[in-house]
Amino acid sequence: MTKKQERDRARRRWEKQQATQQAKAEKQARLKRIAAIVATVAVVGGLVGALAWRMKPEPDPEPQRTAAGCEMPPEPLGTTAKLELPDKATAAGKTYTATLTTNCGDIVLELDGTKAPQAVASFVQLAKADYWLNSPCHRLGTGEGFKLLQCGDPTGGGQGTPGYGFAVENAPKDGTYPRGTVAMARTQDPKKGNGGQFFLVNGETKLPDPNGYTIFGTITQGLDIVDKVAAAGVQPGGESETTGAPAAPISILRVAVTEKKA
């Protein structure tokens, strides 16, 4: 073998070695790039996941409930009104259905314009004027012979009026108010003491007032709501252990009235 052939052979070996080393270096570099890409994807994925977790909306909290299991009522508006007493002829001989929507559900009444036209005419007017919007039922009686829920004062304090008063009508002679009765609450004045307040009777009630209280309707649906509120009792510091503000607050949110056609 000539010297030239030996040099050519040595050059080919060197070139082969160089090619092998270059291929190995390129493979290592490729593996490093792949590892870097995988690591980057993992980091980005982790950041996206963490961001998504942080941005996940919080579930709505459970609404607070009263002792009777109802949603908490809104704050009362605290206002009364200055309205004119409606003509009782507008309700005379008519029957109405009134739906009291409360924070505990609907209480449905049937109003008797034949027996108590003035009270029914007033009730219909006040309902259409949204007088009882967010109005608390401020007084509860749970004692023997005095089982009722008093409502109708938008101030929530028991002193609010619609700006007028009217006389007692259709009062029971024996002072007995059966379960399911709807009657007007009033001041001591039997001539002008009726206004916007009324009571829902959930157990036979005896009110031995000589002038009585106007019965103007009956509860046809939702008496169980009054029972639930009564079962929770009254707040401490009331008139007595069995009469005072309901421990489970209940408010009239709105009232809808429709005339029943014969």
UniProtKB/TrEMBL annotation:
Region (Disordered): 1-21, 58-81
TM spans (from-to): 34-53
All copies of domain PPIase cyclophilin-type, residue ranges: 105-257
Taxonomy, superkingdom: Bacteria
Keyword annotations from UniProtKB, A to Z: Isomerase, Membrane, Transmembrane, Transmembrane helix
SUPFAM superfamilies according to UniProt: Cyclophilin-like
A GO term for molecular function: peptidyl-prolyl cis-trans isomerase activity
Pfam families (UniProt xref): Pro_isomerase (PF00160)
Claim: Cell inner membrane is one of the keywords in the record: no
Functional description taken from the UniProt entry: PPIases accelerate the folding of proteins. It catalyzes the cis-trans isomerization of proline imidic peptide bonds in oligopeptides.
PANTHER family: PEPTIDYL-PROLYL CIS-TRANS ISOMERASE B-RELATED (PTHR45625:SF3), PEPTIDYL-PROLYL CIS-TRANS ISOMERASE-RELATED (PTHR45625)
Protein's name in the database: Peptidyl-prolyl cis-trans isomerase B (Cyclophilin B)
Species this protein is from: Knoellia remsis
Source organism phylogeny: Bacteria, Bacillati, Actinomycetota, Actinomycetes, Micrococcales
